């Protein structure tokens, strides 16, 4: 009986995560177009539905009905495999993202996390590193010099910033003493302190690395519309073309924003004031308050990414890689030394 209930809970969690992530990811295209429009003093989507709310559905229908073309002399198997390798790991990251505290539903205790493993953070970056294979395959299998150049640029950026982002998250890991995403949030709540107050350098570096990993401005050199059309996706069409930006610009940004909230912003905890503890202005929401806080934090980080995207110029590829190895990496080393000094004080 207990096994059946456990399997049912897991199945519901999987369906909810898939539905929410892919549904929200699709509608974030509308959010970005609206944000960009207001920054540029124009209305944005307004025709399909009230204020363009049905525009993502119209775009999806348009992509589905387009003809599925394949580049001549390309490798069809790897061409299609690249799409799967881009989408599946990006969604799997949410398996170890804790959305709130443990709750009891109909007498069953449920953790709002698909799988709480003690190496959850390690799993996040193992899945994240698979993106480089998807991008390299997409560029090579397309048999296009523009796609190949775009994929090599992106692969170089990911390799550089994977190292940076790994060292950046080591600070919160040392302070919490665990790689479990759920336990890292719990430790911040127990210690009464968000780790952003102890790790401001790591948080800033993480944000830069997140922008680079997801190909957002100012690190979108792999796309470079004026030079490479759309980079490694130039030979993709229809829904296949739509999956890549959906994964890279929205699903990955959401997942990395959620991980940033877990590592630095106390997960589902309310507002944290150093030395004063937590303040919850949304206390009247009762048990829904933690989930609302988590969603608000992720939303604010996503809007911050959009704001940067539509206000900053693009870096050159040499500037991007030099920033990673000559600026970001030394900063993370300095931060690790600082963390090693303050960690015993936090544990006390």
From TrEMBL:
<feature type="transmembrane region" description="Helical">
    <location>
        <begin position="291"/>
        <end position="312"/>
    </location>
</feature>
<keyword id="KW-0520">NAD</keyword>
<feature type="transmembrane region" description="Helical">
    <location>
        <begin position="249"/>
        <end position="271"/>
    </location>
</feature>
<dbReference type="InterPro" id="IPR001694">
    <property type="entry name" value="NADH_UbQ_OxRdtase_su1/FPO"/>
</dbReference>
<keyword id="KW-0997">Cell inner membrane</keyword>
<dbReference type="GO" id="GO:0016655">
    <property type="term" value="F:oxidoreductase activity, acting on NAD(P)H, quinone or similar compound as acceptor"/>
</dbReference>
<dbReference type="GO" id="GO:0009060">
    <property type="term" value="P:aerobic respiration"/>
</dbReference>
<keyword id="KW-1003">Cell membrane</keyword>
<keyword id="KW-0812">Transmembrane</keyword>
<keyword id="KW-1133">Transmembrane helix</keyword>
<keyword id="KW-0472">Membrane</keyword>
<feature type="transmembrane region" description="Helical">
    <location>
        <begin position="194"/>
        <end position="212"/>
    </location>
</feature>
<comment type="function">
    <text>NDH-1 shuttles electrons from NADH, via FMN and iron-sulfur (Fe-S) centers, to quinones in the respiratory chain. The immediate electron acceptor for the enzyme in this species is believed to be ubiquinone. Couples the redox reaction to proton translocation (for every two electrons transferred, four hydrogen ions are translocated across the cytoplasmic membrane), and thus conserves the redox energy in a proton gradient. This subunit may bind ubiquinone.</text>
</comment>
<dbReference type="GO" id="GO:0005886">
    <property type="term" value="C:plasma membrane"/>
</dbReference>
<comment type="subunit">
    <text>NDH-1 is composed of 14 different subunits. Subunits NuoA, H, J, K, L, M, N constitute the membrane sector of the complex.</text>
</comment>
<feature type="transmembrane region" description="Helical">
    <location>
        <begin position="161"/>
        <end position="182"/>
    </location>
</feature>
<keyword id="KW-0874">Quinone</keyword>
<dbReference type="GO" id="GO:0003954">
    <property type="term" value="F:NADH dehydrogenase activity"/>
</dbReference>
<keyword id="KW-0560">Oxidoreductase</keyword>
<dbReference type="Pfam" id="PF00146">
    <property type="entry name" value="NADHdh"/>
</dbReference>
<keyword id="KW-1278">Translocase</keyword>
<feature type="transmembrane region" description="Helical">
    <location>
        <begin position="119"/>
        <end position="140"/>
    </location>
</feature>
<feature type="transmembrane region" description="Helical">
    <location>
        <begin position="6"/>
        <end position="31"/>
    </location>
</feature>
<dbReference type="InterPro" id="IPR018086">
    <property type="entry name" value="NADH_UbQ_OxRdtase_su1_CS"/>
</dbReference>
<feature type="transmembrane region" description="Helical">
    <location>
        <begin position="77"/>
        <end position="99"/>
    </location>
</feature>
<keyword id="KW-0830">Ubiquinone</keyword>
<feature type="transmembrane region" description="Helical">
    <location>
        <begin position="324"/>
        <end position="347"/>
    </location>
</feature>
<protein>
    <recommendedName>
        <fullName>NADH-quinone oxidoreductase subunit H</fullName>
        <ecNumber>7.1.1.-</ecNumber>
    </recommendedName>
</protein>
<comment type="similarity">
    <text>Belongs to the complex I subunit 1 family.</text>
</comment>
<dbReference type="GO" id="GO:0048038">
    <property type="term" value="F:quinone binding"/>
</dbReference>
């Amino acid at each position: 009986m207990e096994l059946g209930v456990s399997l049912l809970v897991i199945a519901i969690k999987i369906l909810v995560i898939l539905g929410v992530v892919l549904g929200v990811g699709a509608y974030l295209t509308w959010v970005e177009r609206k944000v960009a429009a207001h920054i540029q003093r124009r209305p944005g989507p307004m025709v399909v539905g009230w204020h363009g709310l049905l525009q993502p559905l119209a775009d999806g229908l348009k992509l589905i009905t387009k003809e599925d073309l394949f580049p001549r002399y390309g490798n069809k198997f790897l061409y299609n495999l690249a799409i799967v390798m881009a989408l599946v790991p990006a969604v799997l990251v949410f398996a170890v993202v804790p959305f709130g505290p443990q709750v009891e539903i109909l007498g069953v205790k449920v953790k709002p996390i698909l799988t709480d493993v003690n190496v959850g953070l390690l799993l996040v970056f193992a899945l994240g590193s698979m993106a480089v294979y998807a991008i390299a395959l997409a560029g090579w299998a397309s048999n296009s010099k523009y796609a190949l150049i775009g994929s090599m640029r992106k692969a170089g950026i990911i390799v550089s910033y994977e190292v940076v982002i790994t060292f950046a998250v080591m600070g919160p890991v040392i302070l919490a003493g665990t790689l479990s995403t759920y336990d890292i949030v719990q430790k911040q709540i127990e210690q009464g302190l968000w780790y952003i107050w102890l790790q401001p350098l790591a948080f800033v570096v993480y944000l830069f690395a997140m922008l680079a990993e997801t190909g957002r401005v100012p690190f979108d050199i792999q796309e470079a519309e004026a030079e490479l059309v759309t980079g490694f996706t130039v030979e993709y069409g229809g829904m296949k073309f739509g999956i890549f930006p959906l994964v890279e610009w929205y699903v990955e940004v959401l997942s990395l924003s959620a991980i940033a909230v877990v590592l630095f912003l106390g997960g589902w905890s309310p507002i944290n004031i150093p030395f004063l503890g937590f303040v919850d202005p949304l206390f009247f929401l009762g048990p829904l308050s933690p989930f609302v806080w988590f969603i608000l934090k992720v939303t604010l980080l996503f809007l911050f990414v959009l704001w940067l995207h539509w206000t900053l110029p693009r870096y050159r590829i040499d500037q991007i890689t030099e920033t990673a190895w000559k600026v970001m990496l030394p900063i993370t080393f300095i931060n690790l030394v600082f963390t090693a000094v303050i960690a015993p004080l936090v544990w006390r």
